[in-house]
Design a protein that fits this description.
The structure holds two protein chains of two kinds.
Chain A: H1 4-12, E1 13-15, E2 18-20, E3 23-27, H2 31-40, E4 51-54, H3 74-88, E5 91-93, H4 103-109, E6 118-121, E7 135-138, H5 141-150, E8 152-154, E9 160-166, H6 175-186, E10 195-199, H7 201-204, H8 208-216, E11 225-227, H9 232-238, H10 248-257, E12 270-275, E13 282-284, E14 292-294, H11 302-305, H12 309-319, E15 334-337, H13 345-355, E16 366-369, H14 374-382, H15 385-392, E17 395-396, E18 417-420, E19 435-438, H16 441-450, H17 456-461
Parallel strand pairs in A: 3-4, 3-6, 4-5, 6-7, 9-10, 9-12, 10-11, 15-16, 15-18, 16-17, 18-19
Antiparallel strand pairs in A: 1-2, 2-8, 13-14
Helix pairs in contact in A: 2-3, 2-5, 6-8, 13-15, 13-16
Chain B: E1 7-10, E2 12-15, H1 22-25, H2 45-48, E3 49-51, E4 56-57, E5 73-76, H3 88-96, E6 100-103, H4 108-115, E7 120-123, H5 126-131, E8 136-139, E9 144-145, E10 148-149, H6 156-162, H7 166-171, H8 174-187
Parallel strand pairs in B: 2-5, 5-6, 6-7
Antiparallel strand pairs in B: 1-8, 3-4, 8-9, 9-10
The chains are: A alpha/beta, B alpha/beta.
Amino acid sequence: MTSLFDRLWTAHEIRPGLVAIDRVILHERTGAAALTSLAAAGRRPANPAHAFVVMDHIVDTHPGRGDRTLMPGGEAFITETRAAARAAGLTLFDIDSPDQGITHVISPELGIVLPGLTLVAPDSHTPTQGAFGALAWGIGSSEAEHALATGTLRVERPGTMRVLVTGRLAPGVTPKDLALHLIATHGARGGQGLAVEFAGPAVTALDMEGRMTLCNMAPEFGAFTALIAPDEVTFAWLSGRRHAPCGALWEQALADWRGLASDSLARFDREIALDATDVAPMVSWGTSPAHSVALGKPVPTREAAGLAPESFDRVMAYTGLAPGQPLIGLPVTGAFIGSCTNSRLSDLRRAAALLAGRRIAPSIRKALVVPGSQAVKRAAEAEGLDRIFTEAGFEWRESGCSLCFYAGGESFAAGERVISSTNRNFESRQGPGTRTHIASPETVAASALAGAIADPRELARA
Amino acid sequence: MPEPVVRLTSVAIPFLEDNIDTDIIIPSREMKGTGKTGLAAGLFANRRYSDPATRTENQAFVLNRPAFRGARILKAGANFGCGSSREHAAWALHEWGIRAILAPSFNPIFFGNCVRNGIVPVALARDLIEALEDPVTVDLETMEVNGHGFELPGEARQMLMLGLDPIALTLREAPAIAAWQQVDRGLRPWAWLD
């Protein structure tokens, strides 16, 4: 009767409303505020060995980068976070570190996240790490201070949801498409406040990177967190990682982790069933990830979109689209492959496979590939993926969050239409007035080649 | 710690659009300093200013109407505060003067950020919010808004009413935490890195 979430929660509940936190990860966008505020109150991290600091949000991604960043005033965030991390005695993955990268890419790479742990970070996409069977969720800066100072959080037990995905994803359909399909079907608050477990044969068939992509999008579904029960795929992926246990501790951990699953009769507050065979490549048309449709479908009518007239009119005005307008063939002048959603090695491989020997359309003004970590970058370069991207016309960058969001530095242009492998198509997310369409890395690659939104399956067949 | 909130009365700013994300509440580029202050000018910058660079006000945006300058209550749509976890959204709202937000639903991270920063997040049905007439009174003693009851989970109400420091409260439980950790080191030695 017990769910995976119940097991994790109960194992960490010191008393109802007070939960033990095993790992805290800070980043430079808010890390300085949290650490400085903590120190100003005369407090110190309770367990520095369990807290890590990452430079990812606003770092420059141009080759040869240093502390200078394109965001006005951005350097202070970097230098102050570095100083505060050192003063507090925390492990820092600095800009020049071979381990640097996006929080939710490097934490798994380094074995910081493990099955059965609680992990928090002041970053909404922290549920990405629930793909490992950890209870991982995003918090604010004040809660980050609390977790550092006390090794705990005061938090209400959330409700639970299971999303059971039967069948298998068709060739050319990716975990990103599955996530967008779920959110488009059930809405941007479909999982409001709940701990969502993804289960079923279509989920267990995914590799770890695909599972991370799926869990990464749970915040766009309004979820408290996402979870996938760990299995042999998880254990094989983690074995030998730097902060993963080894020797006898690894064997003991494995024995514990093999019990981390929901009972067959486990109860959830809500259940959703999806058939993966119904999922097609998806692309967004509006200003919420819920505003997404299968590639080949047009911009929906207001009634089909389920929006109030003023909301729908605002979305249409912002995106420059009209109901019934085809999305395939819609010209784009920007393309972005990266972010904690889709910047891992397999993402880059699949995009590169479509780009090999081809050139992006001359009408593309700016096309970037930003690997999720320096480790991903090195591995991609060892396979020659960087050359495929640059020969196709993409820029090949250093790792970071980059143009997933606009912080005042680099951006896409006002009114520019961009195809992007990121997680948010919010108003002005990638630049003031920029019109973002989110999709899989394959769809970004195919669209960059066509200079317009395109179906990668047709390219793969060509 | 923010000042306690027990009861407040104000005109309420009607901004009932659904899915207002924290990028709309405060765009990332408006988070200019590493601290928690100086953020009110960036609140709703992309809506509030016709030109955010010169701070030319967009007179059509509801916050700029004379009747709502100085208002302390915001009427919002469903899923308010979705997206980025940036606590700057709550800091900017508080600094501008907002002390309560009435919405059909809130993003869970944003909800927690409000409670920790002296903003009362009040979940009410949309039709009730729309029908509320000014002035609006949010009362944490009676747990009512103009006679309509609302709920706050767990200790959120106490936090807001007393302006408590949650870290100080938790540190009082240090013995229980230490005892839990000692047991856990035995149960899950693989989870401990020190």
